[in-house]
């Protein structure tokens, strides 16, 4: 074939991939498959986790890549339906009311449709011009959520980034750059005492990871002492900062939790703010999970004092029930919005139009190209109103309290925390294990969880307390009921009994 002929042939082969009619047919097939799947999952039918060993799933995924390509509209719609079916039948069914596992929600399905609009039309937003309405939707959400946190309208700044880990890192990078004004260009000072980061003793691992990334060193993360509810002890924090100041150690930030991951402990943010203000230290709050409490008149007291923080992160893909990833960063002082990254890129940012550069997200985020990540939240909010978020928080928090009460009332269960939100850790301790040592008891929890989740009956997750493995539930589906929780306890009993008989 001559070059023009081969290009024509290539164009002909490309054409179906961009055919709007074909997209319509495939789109209908996908939305039907998703709606059927949701109906089944939400009703609690079928397994929660479709357990397959990684090798089986990789083999299936690889086989699909080796399939013969298809061309006609009908064939494409059939192929897409088949592939979507494969994804669904091998996936994790977060929408099952028997999913009570990680802090990842049964997302509001319509949020996914708004995400899909951003994906299908591809609105990457390094600069405003490349995703003008996606940028505007993000800015509208930043303003609304920031005000929910109690920041003064017009005086704070924020943006969306790809996940809570990156959000925390960005805030701590800003804190570092504010403390060491020349650090971005010259690196972390090498002479004198090494700078430290003081963090909630059970902060998410991404906080220590940030210290590694920022050149502070993970060994220079000081774990703030916790009280018996696993919250930062403010007087111990005061003592730590007093000592560090006396030793001339630079303190990059204090990172508090709202809430910390293991048991959902919310720090007393006003008390932490008092200490930070006294010592002139940057206060950061990781509100990845708990930020949503701001929507609930019943629970928003958990965040009292958050408006005094210099930086805050909040994952909408946790308790605002939108699909991953959509993480918000906030700075109390909007002047800090360009402190994390200082870059010239004349091929991208137009210095002759600084007013517009204000809306170029790439100036503030690590990402250059960025998914239109706020569309799901924006569309859900604009469709159902903010009462939905209030209700989601209130229902899931209340249900978790019921779970705690059930665990507390049962002789064979041991709750490990009195939940402040929708996270509760516990152990199943049948009579035969009451005198067991920690190693045996911990191993039993791990084996029991594996047996349970691979059965597909429920999905719960592991944790540990004082180094001894335990079980953990986060109620992330508002359609979970008291009956499901009773069923969970009974399922653990039945499986636990069988397990201990097999030992
Ligand atoms: C308190 C807290 N911070 C940060 C993260 C990390 O967020 P992401 O998974 O979006 O990176 C998590 C994840 O569960 C978390 O619980």
UniProtKB/TrEMBL annotation:
Is Lyase included in the keywords of this UniProt record? yes
Q: Which Gene3D superfamilies match?
A: 3.90.1150.170, Type I PLP-dependent aspartate aminotransferase-like (Major domain)
Record has Glycoprotein as a keyword: no
The cofactors named for this UniProt entry are: pyridoxal 5'-phosphate
EC id: 4.1.1.86
Alphabetically ordered keywords of this record: Decarboxylase, Lyase, Pyridoxal phosphate
Q: Name one GO molecular function term.
A: diaminobutyrate decarboxylase activity
| PANTHER family linked to this entry | CYSTEINE SULFINIC ACID DECARBOXYLASE, GLUTAMATE DECARBOXYLASE-RELATED
Q: Which family does it belong to?
A: Belongs to the group II decarboxylase family.
Stated name of the protein: L-2,4-diaminobutyrate decarboxylase
Query: From which source organism is this entry?
Result: Alienimonas chondri
């Amino acid at each position: 074939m001559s070059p023009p002929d081969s290009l024509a042939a290539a164009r002909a082969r490309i054409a179906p991939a961009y055919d709007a009619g074909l997209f319509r047919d495939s789109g209908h097939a996908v939305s039907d498959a998703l709606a059927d799947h949701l109906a089944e999952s939400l009703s609690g039918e079928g397994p929660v986790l479709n357990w397959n060993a990684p090798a089986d799933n990789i083999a299936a995924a690889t086989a699909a890549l080796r399939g013969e390509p298809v061309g006609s509209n009908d064939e494409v719609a059939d192929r897409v339906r088949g592939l979507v079916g494969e994804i669904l039948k091998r996936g994790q069914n977060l929408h099952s009311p028997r999913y009570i596992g990680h802090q990842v929600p049964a997302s509001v399905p319509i949020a996914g449709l708004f995400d899909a609009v951003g994906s299908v039309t591809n609105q990457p937003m390094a600069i405003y011009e490349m995703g003008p309405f996606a940028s505007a939707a993000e800015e509208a959400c930043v303003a609304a959520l920031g005000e929910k946190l109690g920041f003064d309208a017009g005086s704070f700044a924020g943006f969306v980034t790809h996940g809570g880990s990156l959000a925390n890192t960005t805030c701590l990078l800003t804190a570092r750059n504010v403390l060491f004004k020349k650090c971005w260009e010259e690196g972390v000072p090498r002479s004198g005492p090494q700078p430290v980061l003081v963090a909630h003793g059970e902060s998410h691992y991404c906080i220590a990871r940030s210290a590694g990334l920022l050149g502070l060193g993970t060994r220079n993360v000081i774990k703030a002492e916790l009280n018996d509810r696993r919250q930062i002890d403010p007087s111990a924090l005061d003592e730590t900062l007093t000592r560090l100041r006396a030793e001339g150690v630079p303190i990059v930030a204090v990172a508090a939790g709202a809430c910390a991951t293991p048991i959902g402990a919310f720090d007393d943010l006003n008390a932490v703010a008092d200490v930070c203000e006294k010592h002139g230290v940057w206060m950061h709050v990781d509100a990845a999970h708990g930020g949503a409490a701001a929507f609930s008149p019943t629970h928003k007291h958990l965040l009292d004092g958050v408006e005094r923080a210099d930086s805050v992160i909040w994952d909408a893909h946790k308790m605002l029930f939108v699909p991953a990833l959509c993480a918000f960063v906030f700075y109390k002082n909007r002047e800090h919005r360009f402190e994390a990254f200082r870059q010239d890129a004349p091929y991208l940012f137009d210095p002759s139009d600084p007013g517009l550069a204000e809306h170029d997200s790439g100036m503030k985020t690590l990402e250059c190209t960025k998914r239109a990540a706020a569309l799901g939240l924006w569309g859900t909010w604009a469709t159902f109103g903010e009462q939905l978020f209030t209700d989601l928080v209130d229902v899931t928090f209340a249900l978790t309290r019921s779970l705690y009460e059930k665990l507390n009332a049962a002789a064979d269960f041991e709750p490990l925390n009195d939940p402040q939100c929708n996270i509760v850790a516990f152990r199943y301790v049948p009579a035969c294990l009451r005198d067991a040592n920690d190693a045996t008891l911990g191993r039993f929890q791990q084996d029991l969880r594996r047996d349970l989740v691979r059965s597909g009956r429920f999905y719960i997750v592991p944790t540990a307390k004082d180094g001894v493995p335990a079980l953990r539930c986060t109620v992330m589906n508002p359609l979970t009921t008291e009956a499901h929780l009773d069923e969970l306890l009974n399922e653990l009993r039945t499986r636990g009994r069988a397990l201990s008989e097999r030992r």
